Known about the structure:
The protein is an alpha+beta fold. The chain has helices at about 5-20, 70-80, 130-140, 195-205, 245-250, 260-270, 320-330; strands at about 1-5, 30-40, 40-45, 50-60, 65-70, 85-95, 95-100, 105-110, 125-130, 155-170, 175-195, 215-220, 220-225, 230-235, 255-260, 280-285, 290-295, 300-305, 315-320, 335-340, 345-350, 355-360.
Amino acid sequence: MKFxxxxxxxxxxxxQVNTTLSGKPKLPILANILLKINNQILLLITTDLExxxxxxxxxxxxxxxxxxxxxxxxxxxxxxxxxxxxxxKIRLNNNKLIxxxxxxxxxxxxxxxxxxxxxxxxxxxxxxxIAEIYLKDLIESTxxxxxxxDIRYYLNGMLIEITNNEIRSITTDGHRLAFSYVNIxxxxxxxxxxxxxxxxxxxxxxxxxxxxxxxxxxxxxxIRFHINNLIFTSKLIDGQFPDYHRILSNKSNKxxxxxxxxxxKAFIRSAILSNNKFQGSKLTLNNNQLKIxxxxxxxxxxxxxxxxxxxxxxxxxxxxxxxxxxxLNILKCKDIKCFFNNANSxxxxxxAYNATSSYIIMPIRI
Length: 366
């Protein structure tokens, strides 16, 4: 195996595939990166047995086909440490990877490529396409309410649901729920999968605000995203996601309309003195005003009063204030609508205009 490449052509894809590697791999070879040359296409492949990332690079100089695995961290650190625009010459000799650039030479130990596990040999029975910016927005709009290390393993991920010409993302940790959707110009049969939390966190790092189309393939066990010159593959969670339709369809008889930014600033101030354990605050709605009252175990108290549009009878309800702040940080609209029923019912928060995302938060007892 032999190839020559400019440092900048190698560094970014090398960084992208390295993000999935953990500090303590289950097997020694999982700390390695697979380098594979075939017909002047260089593949950089990493995996942790749950996620696999492949980067493709066109090699314009003469190369020799072959494959080997080498320490991903050492290989990346060496390439990053070389001067900008350096020409890097890499070859395999007697099971040692030799890296040369200018007057620098590095010789790394290797492990055979035949020992490297991969998720490559499967066929997708479902395919669709979505613009990169839409996929990024779907994930960013809902990822914050995924559960973490919940015994209900199906909550530790994101439900992706495809129905007709809609792609939806849904997450919940049992206390709150986030829902978002985009329309796509494809009429697809119904399909739903649950992508693990870690995979979502790694996938979002690879996405940009571009209109490039991303091909998505999946089967019963895996999902794959073709993102420009990257292929991101993840195992799926096998489980039954909660019926979110029932939660979203609850009718509300009271609607509050307010400026999102003003609300957010008031809630952030109120959070300073809210109970550290539960982050609970009392919301009192009456006469087109919202009063936010917070206190803690040290007997500190805060009160915020905001003018809102709320022409209904008085309502008092308690919420985890950080959950509301999370939603107000995600929404980018000028005004929002909050839908209420009573003190024991959840609140639904949406943009006041053309809402494509909905957020449900359960009340708490203080």
